[in-house]
Amino acid sequence: MSRPKRRAVDPSRLAAFEVLKAVRVDDGYTNLLLPALLARHGLAGRDAAFTTELASGTIRRQGTYDAVLAACIDRPLRKVEAKVLDALRLGTHQLLGMRVPTHAAIDTTVTLVRDQVNQGAAGFSNAVLRKVASQDLDAWLAQVAPDDLAVAHSHPAWVVEELRRALADRAEELPELLAADNDAPRVTLVARPGLAARDELPGTPTPYSPYGVVLDGGDPSSVVAVAEGRAGVQDEGSQLVALALAAAPVDGRDERWIDLCAGPGGKASLLAALAAQQGAALTGVELHHHRARLVARAASATAGLAGVVQADATRAPFADASADRILLDAPCTGLGALRRRPEARWRRRPADVTELVGLQRALLAEAIRVLRPGGALLYATCSPVLAETADVVTAALAEHPQVRLEDVSAHLPAVPDAEGPLPGTVQLWPHRHGTDAMFLALLRKA
Question: Are 318 and 366 within 8 A, CB to CB?
Answer without folding.
Answer: no
